[in-house]
Amino acid sequence: MKQSNVAPAQGKLGILVVGCGAVSTTFMTGVLMARKGFTKPVGSMTQYDKMRVGRGADARYLHYADIVPLAKLDDIVFGCWDVYPQNAYQAAMYAEVLKEKDIEPVRSELEQIVPMPAAFDKNYAKRLDGDNVKTSPDPSKERGVMPTRWEMVEMLREDIRRFKADKGCDRVVVLWAASTEIYVPVNEAVHYQLSDLELAMKADDREHIAPSMCYAYAALTEGAPFIMGAPNTTVDIPAMWQLAEKTRMPIAGKDFKTGQTLVKSGFAPIIGTRCLGLSGWFSTNILGNRDGLVLDEPANFRTKEVSKLSTLETILKPDVQPDLYGHGNDEDTQYYHKVRINYYPPRNDNKEGWDNIDIFGWMGYPMQIKINFLCRDSILAAPLCLDLCLLSDLAARAGRYGIQRFLSFFLKSPMHDYTQGEEAVNHLYQQYTMLKNAIREMGGYEADEEID
Question: What is the average pLDDT across 373-388?
Answer without folding.
Answer: 95
